[in-house]
Amino acid sequence: MGESAAYEVWHGDFLVGELWDLSVDQPWFLCRFVPGVGWSELSPLFAAQEEARRQHFPEQLIGAIAAVRDLDVELRPVAGGEPIRPWMIYLTEGRASFRY
Questions:
Q1: If you count Cβ atoms within 10 Å of the first and of the last residue's Cβ in the chain, which end, N or C, has fewer?
Q2: Is the pLDDT of residue 85 over 80?
Q3: pLDDT for the residue numbered 3
């Protein structure tokens, strides 16, 4: 287990949460997600996206994926460096995966 978060997840000026224990399963980055103060506002969008994935992306739920993508979240490295804007990110309480 890591000693500090690898990334902070931001939506505008709101800290959505932190990503810990980063590992790679190409092409995905896998992490433990710890919600922040901005999570409660966005969690319904991510829950809808997760449901679309669980159902293997039926056409009637594709809008949930676009809604999350349109959030334009930013991953800021805790250790410093350039922020990442993932083109796909899944967040649930306890776990996360993203691609960029």
A1: N
A2: yes
A3: 76
DSSP 41: H
How far is C-alpha 18 from the chain's CA centre? 9
Domain coordinates in residue numbering, the chain: 7-99
Q: Which residues contact 10 (CB under 8 A, 6 or more apart)?
A: 16, 38, 73, 74, 75, 76, 83
Strands (DSSP E) along 1-100, which ranges? 7-11, 14-25, 28-35, 74-77, 88-92, 95-99
State the residue for tokens 């796909």.
88
- Distance CA(11)–CA(89), nearest Å, equals 13
Cβ atoms 7, 77 nearer than 8 A: yes
pTM assigned to the model: 0.89
Return the DSSP state at 18.
E
